[in-house]
Amino acid sequence: MKTIFKKKLIHFIKVVFALIIVAIGIIITAYLWPTSKLQTPVVFEKTIIKNVNIVDAVTGKVVKNQFVLIENSRITKIDTTHITVTDDALLIDGNGKYLIPGLWDMHTHSNQHSEWLHHPLYIANGITGVRDMSGQLNEKDSYWVGSKERLQWNKDLINNKRVTPRYVLQSSYQMDGEKAIPEDLPSFFKLKNPSQVDSLLHFYKKEKVDFIKVYQQLSKETYKALAEKAPKYGLHLAGHKPMFLSLEEAVNLGQKSFEHGRVFLYEFFPEADSLKNPTNWKAYFSKSKAKIVQQFDSVQAKNLMQLMQQKNAYWTPTLQTLKFEANAHKENFTNNENLKYVTSVRKKLWWKFDTDHNKEKNLESEGVSESEQFFEASKKQVAMANKMGVPIMAGTDVTDSYVFAGFSLHNELYELTRSGLSNLEALQSATIVPAKYSNQISDYGTIEIGKKADLILLNKNPLENIQNSESIDGILLNGVYYNKEKLTELKAFTETAASSFHMNVKTLISLVNSPLIRVQFTD
Ligand SMILES: [Zn+2]
Predict the structure, then answer these.
(1) Centroid of ligand 1 to alpha carbon of 210 (angstroms)
(2) Whole-prediction pTM
(3) Quick check: 85 pLDDT over 80?
(4) Higher-confidence residue: 22 or 239?
């Protein structure tokens, strides 16, 4: 009896062991599985768009029946009469269609898998430029990308070797003080005191970064030193308003862009100083959300908005994130047809927790939930800021929950119009305003001779209805034409990648291996 049992046990162990080996083998194979590559369209020496209606993003006028000539990635002629060229030019029929400048998403987070999961969707949706708000430290991260990768992507785009939007400005890693930095890295990343600021700025200058992304928990002294010294290195500050100083101080110190819809809400209520206390701001916030909205002082807010206008400080409200929080309990919101473009790893290990948490909070509340109040209040503040002349930029916060690369930018434009921007102003928030912000208005933002041919051909006029920005017939990126079939192919490419076992394994392993992700999640 004993020996039979022993034999059975040994057999059982052998089977389990074999299964483990097989499972490890499958995971390793999936991890190493070669990823497919997208082909870029053929480059033509000359491209002509015939008889198209050009939307002037400055005046809001539509200039009808124009011929646009594109050579070497730039617009070289715009004419009312037919432009004759050699037979080998690409002719695009613009009859009855509308041409707008390529759209920029001014708040994204790309990662090592963006080539498969995000870039095709950006291009398919006419997002020709992005300002990515994340970066790396001194080592290549398994998950996040930094300026090195993104500058290479830009080069590949110019050589037509890669399907990617332009990465219009390069970001540092998010600077959040000591706790946000893994142990064994150079200590200046921790920004424990102002004396470390020069080393940090020097490092990022060398990495060809354009701005330091500032985050919540930087100390006031260090932030001040950063703000004062950054311009000497040709860098600026962009990101969150650090908690422990006022928005007024940050604006006066020259921070160039402020992110997210809550910026003004945190600032203008009677107990706002409680949020600036490093030891208990989180506890205070969690119990005071309703109060923050109800006691909002719009007179003070307007004064600050006026200061922002004077100091040329930009606001990227990323309404998508607040919209998600406000709607997480609604099935017609969470049943999104774009979920097929997102890996199961992200949906199940990240978005689900976020959704469940917000859903529960929303369902618990009687009447209008706090998140809904926050969302509505932010939209009102967008209207106020817009009236006061604060430059507003469209940004989405891809890869946050229920934010979809490319698609969500169109929804952000829609939400901006629901917040009181005109269709033209919404269009400007993703064209002229970001181009000015980035000091690249001589190349982008409008359709003019000499500018880069990053353009969207639409079937319908977005000035009549902003949702017409989605009626995309074709895209020109760096002068290269992506026709309707190509755009469909791009979407299918990401859909296949997102649902593939190997991409899910790669994503999971890159997340688990990233020391930066580990620190972010334990914070
Ligand atoms: Zn973000």
Answers:
(1) 17
(2) 0.95
(3) no
(4) 239
The SS3 assignment for 106 reads strand
Q: Which residues pair with 238 in a beta bridge?
A: 213, 257
For the chain, the domain total comes to 1
Tell whether 474 is covered by a domain: no
pLDDT band at 1 (very low <50, low <70, confident <90, very high): low
* CA of residue 260 to ligand 1 center, whole Å: 8
Confidence of residue 521 (pLDDT cuts 50, 70, 90): confident
Measure 399 CA to ligand 1 centroid, in angstroms: 8
Distance 257 CA to ligand 1 centre (A): 13
How many angstroms separate the alpha carbon of residue 123 from the centre of ligand 1? 20
Residue 234 falls within a domain, yes or no?
A: yes
Q: Distance (Å, rounded) from C-alpha 305 to C-alpha 299?
A: 10
Residue 456: burial class (beta carbons within 10 Å; 0-12, 13-18, 19+):
buried
Parallel, antiparallel or unpaired: strands 472-477 and 455-458: antiparallel
6 lies in a domain? no
Say which CATH number the domain at 427 has: 3.20.20.140
The range of the structural domain enclosing residue 260 comes to: 102-457+482-492
Is 164 part of a structural domain of the chain? yes
Kindly report, residue by residue over 40-49, the tens digit of the pLDDT.
999 999 999 9
